[in-house]
Write a structure and sequence with these properties.
Helix content: 55-70%
Structural class: mainly alpha
Largest sheet: 3 strands, mixed
Bound molecules: zinc ion
Radius of gyration: 16 Å
Distance between the termini: 35 Å
Order of helices and strands: HEHHEEHHHHHH
Strand order of the largest sheet: 1-3-2
Mean pLDDT: 91
Number of domains: 1
């Protein structure tokens, strides 16, 4: 998917420039999920394994595998279910997954698909980035660990895993509320915004 396209607004342009920066930094390519044969196959497998429905996977989720990110909407366009801000938060989340691969795509995918506990841990680490981004913008958190718990319900996790995930996020929140940013992808996104589009930080 060509990132350099005409955005409809300045905010949409921020989204595209940010994603352009991050894809360059991490050598990542962005693809349209809706036209990907690989994603269609993955969606069918996930449905077969009762991890999530095909429709949910294809239209409701961004998927990162190795250095490829599959997106079911057009970056820099806010007419779908992702606002501009959602697309910025998403950037911090998905690039944290890129970092998790750590050169071992096979073991990541294997753990992700077959091991619900590891899957939950990967997601919790990436969702920490969502909290870090929200705190950066608002200097307060618009949601609690329950948000992560509810999202993980769609990732085939047991109640015990969901509760562990809640504890994990709750343990991160005090640091986040002191302004601490742990995820490197969040640091990259925040640094880029401060340097190029500082108005996204509503409170300083
Ligand atoms: Zn994720």
């Amino acid at each position: 998917m060509a990132l350099r396209q005409d955005a409809k607004s300045r905010l949409g342009d921020d989204v595209i420039r940010l994603w352009d920066f991050m894809t360059g930094k991490y050598d990542v390519k962005v693809y349209d999920k809706r036209t990907s044969g690989l994603m269609s196959l993955a969606g069918k497998i996930l449905q077969r394994l009762s991890i999530m429905s095909y429709e949910q996977f294809m239209n409701g989720y961004v998927t990162t595998i190795g250095n490829r990110i599959y997106i079911p909407f057009k970056l820099g366009d806010d007419e779908g279910r992702w606002s501009y801000w959602d697309q910025i938060v998403l950037c911090a989340h998905e690039f944290q997954h890129v970092r998790q691969f750590n050169g071992s795509v096979v073991s990541f995918v294997w753990n992700y698909v077959r091991n619900p506990e590891k899957r939950a841990l990967y997601e919790c680490q990436a969702f920490r980035g969502n909290f870090e981004m929200e705190y950066f913008k608002w200097k307060e958190l618009p949601y609690t660990s329950t948000m992560v718990k509810n999202k993980l319900r769609y990732y085939g996790c047991s109640e015990k895993i969901l509760n562990n995930a809640t504890h994990y996020i709750d343990s991160c929140i005090p640091t986040i509320e002191l302004g601490g940013v742990v995820n490197q992808a969040s640091k990259d996104v925040i640094n880029w915004l401060r340097a190029n589009a500082g108005y996204w930080e509503l409170k300083k």
